[in-house]
Every structure is written in structure tokens, then in C-alpha cells.
ATP-binding protein
Amino acid sequence: MERKVVGYVYESPSVREFTFVVSRDAEDVGVGDYVVVREPDSDGRELLGRVEDVRRDVHEGIKGEIAKASMVSGRPVPELDWTVVARVEVLGALEDGRLRDPRMPARPTDAVYRLPESELEELFSKGEVFLGRLKDSRARVFLGLNELITLHCAVLGMTGSGKSYTVGVLIEEMARHDIPVVVIDPHGEYTSLREPSHDRERLERWGLEPEGLDDVEVFAPPHSEGVKDYPITIDTTKLEVDDFEVLAPELSKRKAAPQVLEEVVKELQRRYRETGEKYSLEDVVEELDAQAKRARASGDVVQYQAARAVLRDLRPLLRYGIFDMAESPDLRRHVRPGRVLVLNLRGVPDRAQQIVVTHFLRRLFELRQRDEIPPVFVVLEEAHNFAPAGEERSSSKTALSVVRDFAREGRKFLAGLCVVSQRPGRVDTTVLSQCNTMIVLRTANPDDLENIRKSGEGITREALERIKGLPTGTAFVTGSAIRIPAFVDVRPRMTRHGGETPDVREIVERWKEDDAEEDLDLGI
């Protein structure tokens, strides 16, 4: 398809912006269209831009004054002369298929061309990860695999924007390229990856077919009722006193409690060093219980109350069975090319989730440092809980320090991080700024938008305005994994999506049917 002239440069206040008057036969030019104009004195380089705004200007003169008077009096308005004007953000100068910094502003009166889909496809297909199509176009968009892993990425968007669905697409693409994936899944949304999608009709329109992933392993707490293939357990002997303090927030309320806990843990550690006898959280609880009984017998009220306070925190965690004498998954054995590991933490208290995330992220990092596992892509869902911004941090230790280390140093060892959050304003700025590719879905909160703007490159005020009103499943993508910032319609998933927003009416109808059956059984 040949290029078509859609107008002529009218004004060019800087190298990063120009305005053009749209030709009468090209008035379908709209926001989001990609256009080019020759860069002056550049040996054929072209300025590539995206239309950010379109307006109609009424010509001044007698007709305009008559029109205003007619509107005020309610009489028929005479036909007006008007011009369509488009404002363009210059993304860069195209040279040998690459985008460079522009050197000269567009020259007024020069012709502006709209890029045909064939050229758009060529610009956006230089990658391995098929994300979707340019919004309002059939041109496919691919992201760079190496850039996603070595320079990290973030998927951000409010609830219902298609955030987890988009992450599912990235996981499918990683598995297709044999990259192992580890998913930190606080809500159990990714346990359906081995099942094919039910949306065959939509997939066919994209030239795709429903297909579950072959190699998915789901880990969950031993006593949980959720989907799992293997248990999640942590070798309690590897926990430090600080870790137990996260599990027992009551420590801060009782003066002697930290000392009581430290004595118990250090005694069990001493026995382990001397005899090799491992211990679990149950052993810690039994030892604390014995300490409480001794304190009560001796009349030491302070020690007794301190031990009981710690027990109140630790005892409820026993029912999850996470803190045992062995570690599962054994990451050295389970992280294999093309395999997806889902750590399903649904129903696990936040303080226990912090320890699980800290432990396994640290372990993944250590194994990659020693090259004992393949390059890996780690998905951190609900990142605002594990890497909270300053004001959101609790007084207790969180996984923040290890997430920061992973974000800063992981890229050196081919350990990629995908930060996922519906509240980017509450994510630690150090972590978010390490994500060189941003995939931003609908977001409306001003604090969230401001943190996105500060952390990502190529995110203009105009782009932020459009992000507020994006339809579900459309994202603004910018950064190192994409050559040009773009609005993208994310492709349909081949696997079944496990994070659909529940339909309240359907659930109520099921309850009504169940009640009717129960009434029938009771003869009511």
C-alpha cells in the first residue's frame, strides 16, 4: 500500500511537536494515527510522529459573526468554513529502520504522510513476544524477549482493566520460547494455565487456537483446598529471628516478647548445629508453650504474658503447614526450560506471604548467580504488597529489601522481574524505576498516574489522559522492549483466564437455584 498525503505542516514550535492542516480528502485522520514528514537538511531522514489531538477550527470573518448571532437568537445557522488541524508528538527520526533523536523541526508547508499498515507492521514486528495489534489497526506488535528479561517490565492497571489477562499472554509467550517462569500468585489466578481457553471464536479471528500449557506445576500450602500439584514448604531451620518477628506482630506490643522469641529460636538453632536435628514451626510453638508454662510456675508474669502473646500469632499459622523441615519447591530441580511454576498463596495471611516471597526470591537470585538454573522470568503479582512505597510500609519487615535487590541486580544474571499492580502509586519507586518496559492498562487514580509518569519513559501528559479511558484489554506500551511507544490491543489468551471478574447476577442465580433445591428436598 502506498503512502497517502494527509495534510501539510502548519506550525512546528520544537523538534518534538508539530501541527498540520488535514487535507479535505483525509478527514478520517484521528488520535493515535502514525504519520511521517521529511526532516529538513537530513539526507532523507523522516520524523515519525503520533497524532495526539485533532480539532476543527472555524474560519473567522463575517460568516462566523453571523453564525454566533444565529445561535443566540435560535435562527438557522449558515454553513461555515472550517479546517481540521492535527497536533503531532514527534517520537523520533527514522534512520535505517531505527529511531533516533530528531535534529531539526518539521518545515511548515511540507507534506505529511500517514503510514500504511504494511510499514507499521514492519516497525512493530522486530521482536519475539507477540503481544497484540496496534489499536485500531491490524498491524501486529511484538516485544523484545531479551529486553523483557534483562531490563525487567511492569504491567499496571486498575482492577478490571485486563492486567492479569495481559500477564497471562506474556507467560504464554515466555513458555513458547522455553523461558522458565515463576509466578508469585497471591490470589490463585494463574492455576488455570494448563487449561485451553473457551473463547475459540475470538482466537480464530486472530489466527490462534485454544491451547493449554503442557508444563505447569502448581505449588500451594499443604493444607490448603486450592489447586496444587505439590506443597509449598520452607525449611524452618533457615529462618532467622527477624523472619519470626514478621510472623509475630504482637512482639511490638509486649516489651519482653522479642527476647522470649529470640531465646527460643537460638536454642533450637544451637541444637540443630550440634545434633543436625531439624525443627519446624510446630517445634517453635511447643518450645514457647513450655517456656510459658515455666514462667507461670515460677510466677514470672511478664515472661508468661510475653510468651503467650507470641503464641497467639504463631499458632494460627500451623494450619497452613508452610513452615516445615524441608523446602518445596526445590528450585534447582523444578525450574526447567519452558516450565511455569505457580506459587499459589491464596488464603495465606499476609505476614506469611512476606516470608514465602522473601525466601524464594532470594533463593532464585542465588541460583542464577551460580548459574544453577536457566534464565528465569519472575512474575510478582500484587507488587504493592511486597514492595510498598514509603508511606505504605508497616513497621514490620517486608519482602521489600529482597525485591529491590532482585530488581537492581537480577538483570546481570538473566533473572527477569515482571512487576504487576493495580496501585502503581503504592509501589516502591526504586523497584518500579528498574522496569524498563511499561505495559499500562486503564488507570484513573492521580497518584498512580503520577508514579507511572515519573517511572516510565515516553509517557506524555496526552498519553496519560488517554490511559484514563482505555477499554479493557488495551494498553499503552513504552520502553526498551518496544521500538516506538504505542497503544496496543492485547491478543486473546490461548490458555484459560483464571482471574475473571465474577458476575454477581450469575452467582445470585446459582444461590437461588440451590435454595430452591433445598426447599424441595425439605418438602417446603
DSSP finds 17 helices and 21 strands in the chain. The mean pLDDT is 89.
